[in-house]
Amino acid sequence: MTDPKTFIEANKERLLDELFSLLRIPSISADPAYNADVAKCAEHIAEQMKSLGLDAVEIFPTAGHPIVYGECLVDPDLPTVLVYGHYDVQPADPIDLWDNDPFEPIIKNTTIHPEGAIFARGACDDKGQMFMHLKAFEIMKSNGEIPCNIKFMIEGEEEVGSSNLEPFVASHKEKLACDTILISDTGMISNTTPSITTGLRGLSYVEVEVTGANRDLHSGLYGGAVANPLNVLAKMVASLHDDNGQITVEGFYDGVEIVSTEERALMAKAPFSQEEFKESIGIGDVWGEEGYSTPERTSIRPTLDVNGMWGGYTGEGAKTVIPSKAYAKISMRLVPGQNPEAITEKFIKHFKAIAPDSVAINVTPHHGGLPYVTHTTNPAYQAASKAYEKTFGKAALPVRSGGSIPIVALFEQQLGTKSILMGFGLDSDAIHSPNEHYGVFNYFKGIETIPYFYENYAKQN
After folding, report:
1. How many domains does the chain have?
2. Which residues 6+ apart lie within 8 Å of 173 measured at CB?
3. Residue 348 has pLDDT above 90, yes or no
4. Are residues 172 and 93 part of one domain?
5. Does 403 have pLDDT greater than 80?
6. Distance in angstroms (rounded) separating the CA atoms of residues 429 and 425
């Protein structure tokens, strides 16, 4: 294969300009006011695919936002790789915390990205990383060396739960049939320590409602005689962890995968500074389940967190009221061996059981997702590892992520295929936050590395 670096050096400005054109489209899937922009972005991706010579390019409508598909089938005897990505982005709010217009990308130097970083909504999650794959395909096409059959499926609803992806995959299994799925929607440890994500946590998300009296009450007339739903909710939430940081929901840990001592030792090789971790988020000390390190608590162990609590009067000044209702949103991150539906049922049963008779409880399940793990013996992992070693000069470390990408488990269920997660973003890239950015180094390094994955994967099959 001709060195991808040569192509990148000769086309740097164009590769950045093309990404900038994509980033300028405010494809916010969560807000109906941007539906036309989301559709425009799908059309933009389809035009890019056509310009690269992909075949069977089509925009598939769904009950929500469209899915863009394209393929290059060179030989039925060669392995087939399905590339997944998403073109939708999170809302940019709060806008006033951005240093630039979130949909007018600029490049600025940072401490972590001395070669410059692209600041824009979607720069890292996931437009920049998704676009790397189209540009890597362009390199292989220009060389006349496409070592695998390649299919692209780029969706527009990842940021709102991908609710229409499962029916699409289920009804297009033959079209999407493949030997492995390639995704860049994760990150790596650092620009000098490449890594491959081998595990993702699942998710169970619920909203709880605690109801006391049939109306808000005067705290002077009724205080001390009736239960305050906010007080009750606070006590119930506090009881969901014991003094050792373990979750008290009955049966919560049933079936949880116990990661081997050997794998924990391998994970521990990844560079990590407890002091830098605390300083980076402005905390005095860490907290969590006893017996596990901070990286282990955020990857191989399940968690339960309150994402928001509200009720009563929160306006200016004072209003002496005992609220009728109190609410909380709670997310549970799950590990292999846990099923989101079963965990949700266990939570509902437990939460109702610990409630006093003075209040009524309602729990509304929201979205969830299965955890996922792949192994370093997987041929796709081996191919990716060699690709990183080629471009970074060192082997990539296997890591498990604390985040959730429910569609990865969905793909395995529907297509019977494992995914390989070749992410090039960094934890510091502020995805979902103001001033999201993606290193210029990372963008080009992804474009450089991906062609070697295909070359290695074809040799192993």
Report:
1. 3
2. 414, 415
3. yes
4. yes
5. yes
6. 7
| 438, 118 contact by CB (below 8 A) | yes
Q: Which domain holds residue 358?
A: 202-254+302-369
Average pLDDT of 335-353?
A: 96
CATH of the domain at 236: 3.30.70.360
3-state secondary structure of 327: strand
Same domain as 132, residue 37: yes
pTM: 0.84
**CA-closest candidate to residue 441, choices 104, 105, 22, 114:** 114
pLDDT per residue as tens digits for the range 428-458: 999 999 999 999 999 999 999 999 999 999 9
How far is the C-alpha of 249 from the C-alpha of 346, rounded, in Å?
7
Of 369, 394, 421, which residue sits at a domain end? Answer: 369
The whole-angstrom separation of Cα 457 and Cα 434 is: 38
* Per-residue model confidence as pLDDT tens digits over 6-25: 999 999 999 999 999 999 99
Three-class secondary structure of residue 198 per DSSP: strand
Rg of the chain taking only CA atoms, in angstroms: 24
How far apart are the two ends of the chain, measured CA to CA in Å?
A: 18
Statement to judge: residues 419 and 284 lie in one domain: no
Number of residues in the chain: 461
**What is the structure's pLDDT at 66?**
98
Q: Are residues 168 and 271 in the same domain?
A: no
